[in-house]
Specification:
Elements: E1 11-15, E2 18-22, E3 32-33, E4 38-39, H1 46-49, H2 51-67, H3 75-90
Antiparallel strand pairs: 1-2, 3-4
Length: 91
């Protein structure tokens, strides 16, 4: 669950008729090519990758609280996410 080189959420599915790769380590879609090497930047961490999502979640939560409504993401969602994370760590 921890990659020391950056935030890594890639996935790959290989089938009999082809494959699909989903996601990228790249923070920007820029590749630097020189005579000696090639390089690209990487996404350093989870908060950087999902900065906009965090902001939208916070706005939604505050709006729901102000209106007396139940947020879309509940305590049950948090509990399940924690159970998944614990199982992944254990495995």
């Amino acid at each position: 669950r921890i990659a020391p080189y950056g935030y890594d959420i890639r996935g790959e599915v290989i089938g009999t008729e082809g494959s699909i790769q989903i996601g990228s380590l790249r923070h920007h879609d820029v590749l630097l090519l020189t005579a000696n090497a090639s390089t690209h930047d990487i996404i350093p961490d989870f908060p950087t990758k999902f900065k906009d999502a965090y902001l939208l979640e916070m706005i939604h939560f505050i709006d729901a609280v102000q209106k007396g409504e139940r947020p879309a993401c509940t305590e049950t969602d948090g509990k399940i996410a924690l159970e998944i994370a614990a199982a992944a760590t254990e495995s």
